[in-house]
Write a structure and sequence with these properties.
Blueprint lengths: L5 E6 L2 E6 L10 H16 L5 E6 L11 H10 L14 H14 L5 E4 L6
Parallel strand pairs: 2-3, 3-4
Antiparallel strand pairs: 1-2
Helix pairs in contact: 1-3
Length: 120
Amino acid sequence: MNDMPVLCERQGAVAIVTLNRPEKHNAISLALTTALAETIRELEADEGVHVIVLTGAGDKAFCAGADMAEALERQNQGSGAQQPGTTGSPYNGVTEVRKATKRTCRSRLPITSSALSTTK
């Protein structure tokens, strides 16, 4: 199994982006969100990509939403437990997730989702 939180493959002008945390029902963690935003940035820069299909790994769920276990852990650790590249409070992970999500939603490329898994 690939340990990357986001996988990307190309099929012609279509980029298939897979949320890759099937053991957590593809719950959105800080690492997944950061990787997703970076993947979208890279795809936007590629003139050959015309559309992005967003899907989830595994056969249980497309995406369970926010990784609440990670959010609770970050909150319990307090402001001293920061992820690399973040600052300040235990809620900075939420801020980073929001920034990355806005970046994804503002993509110049159309993004559609598919509940059909491309990986097992």
